[in-house]
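Encode chain A's predicted structure.
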Amino acid sequence: MGFYHYLSFGIILFSIGVVGFIIRNNTVVLLMSVELMLNSVNLIFVAFSRYLHGTEGQVYVFITMAIAAAEVAVGLAIVISIYRLFGTLDISKIKLLKG
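Encoded structure for chain A:
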């Protein structure tokens, strides 16, 4: 597979993540959509890094993976506290921050 195959696959994955983030109301699905978008960007970084014969893209992938791990830890803690407080994970039913 060539560079353009990886690039198009990454763009398709990112688009699926954006659609999942916009359409769904479940917080777990929203977190999974953000992770899908981050992983698709990682795939594109690695594809460009390999295509341009450099290592900068792979360094950015390690940084992005560290940020994604922190995001998962904080996001799951927030999801657990929201579920304990409201008894649901549906964002449209949570009215705590609405004015």
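The longest helix spans residues 56-86.
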